[in-house]
Design a protein that fits this description.
Blueprint: H1 3-10, H2 22-48, H3 53-74, H4 86-89, H5 91-112, H6 123-127, H7 129-136, H8 146-152, H9 156-178, H10 187-206, H11 217-220, H12 222-246, H13 248-258, H14 261-268
Length: 271
């Protein structure tokens, strides 16, 4: 996150003229796709851990919102990163896939709120990651399969870390928007994904399993920590609603209070 730039930007947000550098656009795309990748892994791990159905529903909604960020992330034709040129040569196909994935995941989120998904409602068919990657993504030996990773690390500590990586990727994207290097189209959506993921993380920490990067203080001050996470989630969704209703500039002044990552890390996370 580019927290250091945000305070300065709050005073001059309305005067920004968008001129996105190619490198910034590629980094923004990577943040969106990292959110999706880590979100899929976290969803798979939540299933293995037997997470409550309400959490499964929130996972699917977060994935739906992230899928909805894809078009604006790729729309500017900035070749590079892992994207094949076919993304823009076959834009109609690419964008339809993103829209369909987002819509289907949102539908599954609503269904999951009522009970376990089964049969034709398997989210794997909605995600379709491998088919899209085969068509539009360069192969990379450095990138591990999400499904393999989930199978190898399906435990509570890794689940929390997956959720925190989702938050990190989305706040990086928010930082780019607030610094003026990326247009604001997905601003409210990013904040909503942060809110949903923070609420999921709160439940994950509430179930215990000390370890990982979390200090023992998390459980020594459990009530205070969970209240902090709940405030985090509530403030992020308030900022998201403000952004949708009144625009980015109105919500920008809320963001520093809504995303107190550094303050929380200083107290509860290993250096």
């Amino acid at each position: 996150m580019r927290i250091g730039k945000w305070v300065v930007l709050l005073a001059c947000c309305s005067s920004i003229v968008w001129s996105v550098e190619p490198g910034e656009q590629i980094e923004y795309r990577k943040s969106v796709m990292k959110t999706l990748d880590e979100g899929v892994v976290a969803y798979q791990t939540a299933l293995k851990l037997g997470a409550p159905q309400s959490e499964i529903s929130r996972h699917l909604k977060s994935l739906a919102l992230t899928s909805g960020q894809i078009k604006k992330a790729f729309e500017p034709r900035v070749e590079g990163g892992y994207a094949k040129p076919d993304v823009w040569k076959k834009w109609s196909d690419f964008s339809k896939r993103a829209d369909a994935q987002s819509a289907r995941l949102m539908q599954l989120s609503e269904l999951a709120a009522s009970g376990p998904l089964s049969g034709g409602n398997d989210p794997k068919t909605a995600l379709g990651c491998s088919g899209c990657h085969d068509a539009f993504r360069q192969s990379s030996a450095k990138t591990a399969s999400s499904a393999t990773k989930a199978a190898q690390t399906a435990d509570s500590i890794e689940y929390r870390q997956q959720l925190m990586r989702v938050i990190d990727a989305q706040t990086s994207a928010i930082g780019q928007i607030l610094s003026g290097t990326i247009p604001e189209d997905n601003f409210a959506s990013h904040l909503e994904v942060v809110s949903l993921t923070a609420s999921l993380a709160s439940g994950a920490f509430d179930r215990g399993a000390p370890g990982g990067e979390a200090l023992p203080k998390v459980w020594q001050e459990k009530a205070r920590f969970l209240r902090t996470m709940q405030d985090f989630s509530e403030n992020a969704i308030k900022a998201s609603r403000t952004a949708r209703q009144d625009g980015k500039d109105a919500a920008a002044v809320m963001v520093i209070d809504a995303l107190p990552c550094r303050q929380c890390h200083d107290v509860y996370r290993r250096k």
